[in-house]
Design goal:
By secondary structure, the protein is mostly helical. It has helices spanning 32-61, 65-74, 76-109, 115-127, 130-141, 148-153, 162-188, 191-198, 203-214, 216-232, 235-241, 251-260, 264-291, 293-301. It is globular, with a radius of gyration of 28 Å.
Length: 302
């Protein structure tokens, strides 16, 4: 009998194995009950500790009507606090963007001695209390500080003045931009930059045409976080400002003073402005994610 007459039992003729139906479990193995419990706990936490306090701020701010609210946010000390807060943020955020981009670029693209030390220094504001950082600036630049006599002799004011507020804000907000950019730049690598340099592009052209566009969404997130923290910073600014009404009070400090003076309606009115700025930041972030979601997701996957 020839081989052709024999029945064939090769892999092509074998029946496909039966596919077992998927159970009602997630990829991680959690049952629907566990999933529902986790979601309910998360929503309850957000409602109780985040959403309700935020709603309370706006409710209390408008409890005495629009006239009282407008008076609270337009009186001279409040206007000065609002202007000073925006001015400090307008100085500190661009400074942190420039230095943060430079630090992230150096860490992600180059190998050098002291690299780990630089990374640790970038994380330092996260581990040091803002109050302590403010005290350090007072120790350095205060009237009785190490540099105080020299500054006073030359008519330079840092503590209890705008420069001190800016320095304290820069310190506490510095990590946000760099920490958003470093992992993204490291993940992308240097292939695109090396190819551009090989083709004759100048280093600055490579930076502005390739490096920055590749990390623009991470940079934007870092700027948002940095700006939100700069406007809401309290601890470090409270130490170096002296809390001089109309001169060195930012919005958080003004809210504290009003509340301590039992002017709760005015305090909540100014606080609602801070909360409104935070909501605008969040809305802008959500709008860009909705409008450019695919681009952001692609950048995050690098």
């Amino acid at each position: 009998m020839s081989d052709a007459a024999l029945p064939r039992h090769d892999a092509a003729a074998a029946p496909a194995p039966a596919v077992k139906p998927r159970s009602a479990r997630s990829v991680g193995g959690e049952s629907p009950i566990i999933q529902a419990t986790l979601i309910a706990v998360s929503l309850a936490f957000l409602l109780l500790f985040l959403l309700l306090p935020l709603i309370t701020v706006f409710v209390e701010a408008g409890a005495r009507g629009w006239a009282a609210y407008r008076e609270a946010i337009t009186e001279p000390d409040a206007v000065s606090a609002i202007r000073l807060t925006l001015l400090v943020a307008a100085i500190a955020v661009p400074f942190n963007v420039v230095v943060g981009v430079a630090a992230a670029w150096a860490i992600a693209k180059f190998e050098f001695r002291g690299k780990n030390l630089l990374i640790s220094l970038i994380d330092l504001p996260f581990s040091v209390s803002p109050v302590i950082s403010g005290l350090v600036y007072v120790l350095l630049f205060g009237a009785q500080g190490y540099l105080g006599p020299f500054l006073r002799a030359n008519g330079i004011e840092i503590i209890f003045a705008l420069p001190g507020l800016v320095l304290a804000t820069i310190f506490v907000t510095f990590p946000f931009v760099a920490r958003e950019l470093i992992p993204h730049m490291q993940a992308i690598g240097s292939t695109d930059e090396e190819a551009a340099l090989t083709l004759g592009a100048s280093p600055w052209r490579v930076f502005f045409a390739i490096t920055l566009p590749n990390v623009k969404w991470s940079l934007f997130y870092g700027v948002l976080l940095c700006n939100a923290r700069a406007m809401g910073e309290f601890g470090a600014v409270a130490v170096v400002s002296g809390k001089i009404r109309g001169l060195t009070n930012t919005m958080p400090l003004h809210v504290e003073i009003l509340y301590n003076e039992y002017m709760s309606a005015a305090a909540f009115a100014v606080a609602s402005l801070l909360a409104g700025l935070a909501l605008v930041t969040l809305a802008l972030k959500a709008l860009l994610e909705w409008r450019y979601g695919d681009s952001i997701a692609a950048a995050r996957r690098h």
